[in-house]
Amino acid sequence: MSQPFSHVIGIVGGAVSGSEAAAIAAERGALVVVIEQNARPYGKIEDGLPRWHVALRKKEYARIDDNLAHPNVRFVPLTKLGRDVDWATLTGELGLSAVVLANGAWRDRPLPASIDAFNGRGLAYQNPFVYWFNHQLDADYDGPRFTVPDGAIVIGGGLASIDCVKIINFVLYGEALRARGIEVDVETMEHEGLPKILADHGLTREALGVRGATLFYRRRAEDMPLVSADDGSSARAAKLEATRVKLLTKVLEKYLVRFEPLSSPLAPLVEGEGESARLVGVRFGKNAIVDGKLVATDEVLDVKTELVVSSIGSIPELIVGIPAKGELYVWKDWDSGALASESASPVHGLGNVLTGKGNIVESRKSSKKVMAQVVDAVLAQPALEPAAVARIEAWVKARWDAVGYRGDYRAWMGAHPPSA
Ligand SMILES: Cc1cc2nc3c(=O)[nH]c(=O)nc-3n(C[C@H](O)[C@H](O)[C@H](O)COP(=O)(O)OP(=O)(O)OC[C@H]3O[C@@H](n4cnc5c(N)ncnc54)[C@H](O)[C@@H]3O)c2cc1C
């Protein structure tokens, strides 16, 4: 007979932050229902982190698996909030003690509308681009496909934009080397760097004739959010700037990337008309730093390219029912992650969806901090009636039947393994 549960918490998203939150609540005796839109719960570990992070992915997969295999956790795969269950059902009709949003940030912040209009016609966004890079070799891959032309450019300035330029160059140099009968995998390219690999084969960038990727950033190398600090003292700020320049310089040298600072995308360069119109480049406006402030100058720079990858930030997806203002959900209190929602079940957010920080450690930290408060509050509530718990369990069972899940997390994952 299953354990009689008195409190049930629903979690949306089963990746780093959702699985960590699930384990925390499960350890304290609550029943936890984790709904996950995909078959596997690995989120950005599988679909964001580029596939050369082999050891890190393996470690994070194992931790997520351990969390979700807890006997008090009911994993509900292939179940998307907003598609398979709506907000009113999840936060009202189901009668959950609390709902936790751990659904990350999967919407790419759009470029200016005039350029965004060319999405899929010369413009790609980071999230689908990295997803393609990670999954293109899967036997059942049916997602978006990209061709990477020489001279592709990336617009952005964070860590993910660095990954995008690396992906472009690994594809380009991988192809150029393969054309000479030399096979080098991406892990080796990432680990050893391109100049060393070329030198080992008696080659140079010029001999291969690869131009490679260029990163366009609106500020300077010193301002790139590659590392940050909580303490804003001026001594610390100067050190931080030097570290950023050092980090970027290493990327430019090790992966043969070009960099164009102080450039903001202004307008598309287009060829063709109507349906056949295609983005063939971007007009950038040049900026300057005056008295520490970024100002636009009159100078423009027209850059021709067959592919623009935009990596200017990931923001939460809008879901009907979740209060949102601008790019973000409306949080009542950032510390507890409480959402400004009128729903019957209290709703909190944690991880990337709350912090906006694309970082595993930060997601886990946020999860622990918020979930401790959520579980305290939930366990202080009166116990749910057994019939109320049974209704939630029946809903879970109906979803399991709909997606073919038999209630055994390890067996399901064995049947749905990630690509190697
Ligand atoms: C290119 C790139 C490189 C990165 N490199 C690093 C790195 O080197 N080091 C590092 O620390 N971090 C890195 N990160 C960031 C890191 O991977 C993420 O910040 C972290 O894994 C986020 O964890 P999370 O659980 O908060 O969110 P996510 O991993 O986004 O998990 C959200 C989960 O919710 C699910 N979900 C979303 N919407 C719904 C819905 N409507 N219904 C049901 N389920 C839903 C998703 O499928 C997913 O499983 C990188 C990210 C990217 C994109």
Task: Give the tags.
single chain; 420 residues; alpha/beta; Rossmann fold; FAD/NAD(P)-binding domain; five-stranded parallel sheet; 15 helices; binds flavin-adenine dinucleotide
| Number of separate structural domains | 2
* Low-confidence blocks of residues: none
Radius of gyration: 24 Å
CATH superfamily descriptor of the largest domain:
FAD/NAD(P)-binding domain
Strand content: 15-25%
Small ligands present: flavin-adenine dinucleotide
Q: Which fold name is given in CATH as the topology of the largest domain?
A: FAD/NAD(P)-binding domain
Number of helices: 15
* Alpha-carbon distance between the two ends: 38 Å
The CATH class label of the largest domain is: Alpha Beta
- Main sheet overview: 5 strands, parallel
Class per helix and strand makeup: alpha/beta
Strand sequence of the main sheet, in spatial order? Answer: 3-2-1-4-19
Choose one word for the global shape: globular
Q: pLDDT average, as an integer?
A: 96
Helix residue percentage? 25-40%
CATH architecture of the largest domain: 3-Layer(bba) Sandwich
Could you explain the architecture of this structure?
- With 420 residues, the chain is α/β, with parallel strands linked by helices.
- It folds into two domains: 8-106 and 316-415, 3-Layer(aba) Sandwich (Rossmann fold); 109-310, FAD/NAD(P)-binding domain (3-Layer(bba) Sandwich), CATH 3.50.50.60.
- Helix content is 38%, strand content 20%.
- It has 15 helices and 19 strands.
- Strands 3-2-1-4-19 form a five-stranded parallel beta sheet, with helices on both faces. Strands 6-13-7-8-9 form a five-stranded parallel beta sheet.
- A hairpin with a 2-residue loop joins strand 15 (324-325) and strand 16.
- Helix 1 (16-27) runs parallel beside helix 3 (54-68).
- The chain is globular and about 70 Å long.
- It starts with 7 loop residues before the first strand and ends in a 5-residue tail after the last helix.
- Residues 12-18, 35-38, 41, 43-45, 48-50, 80-82, 102-104, 106, 130, 159-160, 163, 319, 351-352, 358-361, 363 line the site of flavin-adenine dinucleotide (FAD).
